[in-house]
Each structure stands twice: as C-alpha cells, then as structure tokens.
Specification:
Helices cover about 0% and strands about 55% of the residues. With about 375 residues, it is mainly beta. It has a single domain, classed as AttH-like fold (Beta Barrel), CATH 2.40.370.10. The strands form two sheets. Strands 1, 2, 3, 4, 5, 6, 7, 8, 9, 10, 11, 12 and 20 form a 13-stranded antiparallel beta sheet that branches. Strands 16-15-14-13-22-21-19-18-17 form a nine-stranded antiparallel beta sheet, with no helix packed on it.
Length: about 375
C-alpha cells in the first residue's frame, strides 16, 4: 500500500513505508516526554505509540499535582485507535497530538480532554543534541525480546497546562524535562503463549536523565538477575554555547549504588558514577522526592496497556492519590521517581533535577531483591 511518505527518500526496505521491516507483532514506534517545574509542584509525562503490525495506535498524558505533599494526586487520560495506514496521520490519537515543529529541535504536545481533567498546549525545546543510546538487543532462550533503538534528548517546556480547571502557565526556563524516541521490537500488546519456560521472569531497568544548569547527564543499565549487564549508557551533554556547539561526551564506564526502600522495589537512595575516558570520575547523588507511576501512561496498565485493541477510537481517564497503598502491586512497580541531584568529582559541585526510572521484576542478587514482585527486605 502506497502512502504519502513514499514520496520522500526515506525507505529502509524494498517495500513501501507502510510495511515494516519486521513482521513481528511487537514491532513499535514510540514517543515519550516528561517535564517538571523547578519547584516540582507539577510533573507531567506523555507517551504515544504506533504498532503497525497490530494496526493499533495509542497515547496517554499524565500529571502529578502537589507531589510529595498530603494532597498529591496523579491524573491520567488514555486514548487508543485503529492505526492509520498513512504515517502522516499517525500523530494524533483522540484528544492527544504530537507535532514535530522542527525535527530534533522542537516538538509540540497538545491535550484536549477536559472531561478527564486535563488540557494542555506544551512545546518541548531542546537544550541538548539527541543522544543515541547503544542498540538494545536481548534474547530469552532463542526468542528475541528486544531489538530496538532509542534516542534521548534534554529540553525545556513552554506553554500551559490545565488540571481540573486550574490553569498553569509555563514560562521559558521554568520547566525542564527530557524526551525519548524508540522503535524496533519489544513486548507490547496482549500476552501470547511462549512455549516451554527457559528462564524465571526477570527484567531489571534503571534510567536517569538529569538536568543541571549548564549540562545534563544520562545513565541507564539493564542487568540480569546475577548483575551481568546487557545494556548501559553514560553521557554528559552540554547546553549549547554561543557558537551553537553541543558536545556530548560518552563515558568509558558507569556504575551505581542503590538502597531500596524497605518493602518496595523503589530506591530510598541512589548514586551514579560516571567515568570518562580522560579526566576525573564524577558521582551524582540522587535524593528521591516523590514517585510518578508509569501506569498513568499505559505501562503495565490492566486496561490501557500499550498495543491492546480497544476499538476504532476509545478515550478514558483515571486518577489516584499518592503515595499508592501497594508499591509492589505488579501495575505499580514501574515508576519514575522525581529526584534532586548533586554532583561531585570531575563535574564539580552542581545541583539539578531529573528522574530515576525503575523497573525491577524478578530476582536481582546484587541488590538483594527476591521473588518476582517481593518487596526488599534487608538481609
């Protein structure tokens, strides 16, 4: 099937653009955004995914208001539709739209769902060049679970957001954040039989993009239950100077130290070591402030999970008070913790804000996690 994008020189296979390079049902193409005011009174995140071989597109937008206080709450809007064949029409799912204003520089996210308590018109403007993380490839037995590429980018937000009728203007410089784009193959949609078991359920993921005044730092790791690492990233990205140059330095090595909150799989404290190829290592100490549950943008959601057929077009919403009652419930284990950050060592002494994303399923011997969703118990 020919579509409008076939008129551009962007083909990666001998087929039209509408036909993916892989027939895997789990093929996907995805946006993620987050943002946080400098006083952390407001945190928001957005996601939009296209699953061409499932013929589904979905999106979500979520806001945490008054995080870390007795009035903290998370409010979410979800949308799902039949995926359009023409990629030029794939940027809107119901009330949520992502517009690429200037590729790799500025993107606009709009939401018009007052019946679910959220309206927004927000523009993400880059403060770093996009960072291509190492390729993700992971197999369980002979089955490929992940085969994807992700880019991460730091930026600031401008515009406005309305929650339950209360409007907040976001002036330039007031709200920071990050975004990512990823595509390829990873688990999405309804679970399917996988045959004979070859390994205990296990997935261990930490991801920490942090904004400082003149630079940003990026860290992630994927590890097996014994701590062996199959993916890692460490980068220091400078905010562009007067000459427009935006150098980003990839680290030679990264490491971390975590102490889990008792009875949970969420960090009570966290330190990152970034080791450059030349010069002194740096340590970034993260102080957790409050949690954002990725459930709000579809991750592990029992009803609005990514790539699940809901109908030609469906829109819904939900909300809950924070903190949640059970941090080890399967749908609440995946979180982004909003953190204050301080640096020492080679980077000097700086303070910043960012997030630490955590998804720990199954055993992880180095940090003392047992069972599949069991909360941490000190040894």
């Amino acid at each position: 099937m020919l579509t409008s994008f076939d008129d551009f020189p962007i083909h990666q296979t001998s087929q039209p653009v509408a036909q993916t390079g892989s027939s895997d049902l789990n093929h996907y193409d995805r946006y993620f955004f987050n943002g946080y005011t400098r006083d952390t009174r407001l945190y928001f995140a957005a996601a939009m995914g296209l699953y061409p071989n499932r013929h589904i597109a979905d999106a979500a937008f979520s806001v945490v208001v008054d995080g870390g206080t007795a009035d903290a709450r998370q409010i979410n809007v979800h949308a799902s539709r039949r995926a359009p064949a023409d990629r030029s029409e794939a940027n809107q799912v119901g009330p949520i739209e992502v517009e690429v204003i200037e590729p790799l520089n500025a993107l606009r996210v709009t939401v018009e769902a007052p019946e679910h308590g959220i309206r927004a018109d927000l523009t993400f403007v880059r403060r770093s060049a996009p960072i291509q993380e190492p390729h993700f490839f992971h197999q369980v037995g002979s089955r490929t679970i992940m085969d994807s590429t992700r880019m991460t980018q730091f930026g600031g937000w401008e515009g406005w957001i309305e929650v339950d009728g209360e409007l907040t203007d976001l002036e330039p410089g007031e709200t920071l954040g990050s975004r990512d784009r990823s595509w390829g193959v990873r688990p999405v949609g309804e679970r399917a039989p996988v045959g004979a078991p070859v390994a205990d359920p296990q997935y261990y993921w930490l991801w920490a993009p942090i904004n400082f005044e003149g630079f940003s730092t990026h860290f992630d790791v994927n590890e097996l239950s014994d701590g062996k690492r199959w993916h890692e990233t460490g980068v220091v990205a400078l905010v562009p100077g007067a000459n427009g140059v935006e150098p980003a330095e990839a680290m030679r090595d990264v490491d971390y130290r975590v102490e889990w909150r008792r009875g949970t799989r969420a960090a009570a404290s966290f330190e990152i070591d970034l080791v450059p190829w030349v010069g002194e290592p740096s340590t970034i100490t993260l102080e957790p402030l409050f949690d954002f549950h990725m459930l709000g943008i579809g991750y592990t959601h029992p009803e609005w999970s990514h790539g699940v057929w809901k109908g030609e077009l469906e829109v819904g919403g939900d909300r809950w008070d924070l903190p949640v009652e059970s941090m080890t419930a399967p749908h609440h284990v995946h979180i982004q913790t909003i953190v204050k950050a301080t640096t020492s060592g080679g980077l000097g002494n700086h303070e910043g804000l960012g997030i630490l994303e955590q998804l720990a399923i199954g055993r992880h011997k180095p940090t003392g996690l047992q069972g599949i969703f069991d909360g941490y118990v000190p040894g």
